[in-house]
Write a structure and sequence with these properties.
The chain is an all-alpha fold. It contains three helices and no strands.
């Protein structure tokens, strides 16, 4: 897992300033509602900002391709054949 950076991003600073602004307004005022909407939009942007991991299917395809290439090159080292190992890998779509 990647360590969290101690440097705050601009998005984090905007969220904190909007939350501090909420303290200055009454919960029944219109300004309070607009600030709450802004905070919710900022949190949505922050959730989209996170690192997206590759899907399990992609990882499995890459692992099988690497295993196949290593297996073929090992066979070519022991028994001489004239094929290319990369021609057997699955092509990305």
């Amino acid at each position: 897992m990647l360590p969290k950076s101690p440097i705050r991003t601009k998005l984090d600073e905007e969220i904190l300033s909007a939350l501090e602004e909420l303290d200055n307004h009454d919960s029944t005022s219109e300004k309070y509602g607009t600030v709450v909407e802004r905070v919710s939009k900022l949190y949505k942007l922050k959730s989209e900002e996170r690192l997206q991991l590759p899907s399990l299917d992609t990882v499995l395809i890459v692992a099988v391709n690497i295993f196949g290439i290593l297996r073929i090159t090992r066979y070519e080292r022991e028994n001489v054949i004239t094929s290319k190992a990369l021609g057997f890998s699955i092509k990305p779509r």
